[in-house]
Amino acid sequence: MMINVTGSLSVINKVGKTLEILSPIDHNALDLRTSRDLPFIGHQKDEPGLNISLINQDSSDDFYHALNDLSDSQAITLIENGSGKHILNLIHNKELIIRTLAIQNHCFNGELNDLPSERIFRLKDIKTSPDISEIVLRTSDIAVFNMNAIRRGDQNGYLRSNTTGLTIEEACQIAKFIGASDLIENVFFLGINLNNDPNDMMACNVANLLWYVSEGVKLRNMDQNISDPENLVFSVVSEPYDKELQFVKSAESGRWWVKVPTEEGHMHMACSKRDYEMACNNEISKRISLAIETTI
């Protein structure tokens, strides 16, 4: 799969050079191009492959404004610490499916009140259960990664970051999950500031994130047939619902799914091994419980 990367000339040049130094990555897989105009969502809709946009810190407001063109059915996952209030404010005017990852409570002042709790995954959730990121991103159409989600110590004192946040290792794991998602076609890295980047630390971080996205892409299209007889199926009867839940582990990717009963039959929902282990102990995770309650 071709990975199309667009951004300003200065960003593309610096990140491209950093990539060459950092890694023996197959550069044929990454098509780095400059764009005079901001590569808004849908800008490269007809391009084959995965489209990645590198957005300068000073261009973020224009990017937020462009989100108004989104269709209501799209699922967006926002990875950041707090300055994405502009995006969250859009839920007042649109029915976007917005999920958050790595949010920190002290960075918000009521902006999360209109977002269903089951769509909010805080920094502590990611630290405790890293697989949550994979589950959320597996069912997203668009990923928006703000560089402020990474803690300040890992970004050479980037002032828009907090002293608390994702480590660069955790951010790279999330980037790999983004690349591995079969549904995500557009990825946006916001808040990039290479004009004040001592020792090229942010350029190095962006380059690392791109590398891990490309690694994740290699894992795509492994779960096209969840009913594949090669997959492992585990049946659990949990007391809270007294119904059989079937958990499926993909033989090819190792990812987990749960077969949730619906009025029409059933649906397969992304889950984790931890969800299965909880069900074995008569505990149903909040996400699965909500899915059962709203589909039966």
Question: Major β-sheet, in short?
Answer: 8 strands, parallel
The CATH topology annotation of the largest domain reads as Arginase, Chain A
How many DSSP helices?
Answer: 9
Give the overall shape, derived from the CA principal axes.
globular
Determine the strand fraction and express it as a percent band.
Answer: 15-25%
Proportion in helices = 25-40%
H and E order: EHEEHEHEEHHEHEHEEEEHH
**What is the rounded distance between the termini?**
38 Å
Strand order of the largest sheet: 2-1-3-8-7-4-5-6
CATH H-level superfamily title of the largest domain: Ureohydrolase domain
Overall description:
This protein has 296 residues and is α/β, with parallel strands linked by helices. The chain folds into 2 domains: 215 residues, 3-Layer(aba) Sandwich (Arginase, Chain A), CATH 3.40.800; 64 residues, no CATH class. The chain contains 9 helices and 12 strands. Strands 2-1-3-8-7-4-5-6 form an 8-stranded parallel sheet. Strands 9-10-11-12 form a 4-stranded antiparallel sheet. α1 packs across α7. The chain is globular and about 60 Å long. About 3% of the residues have low confidence.
List keywords for this structure.
296 residues, alpha/beta, Arginase, Chain A, 2 domains, eight-stranded parallel sheet, four-stranded antiparallel sheet, 12 strands, 30% helix, globular
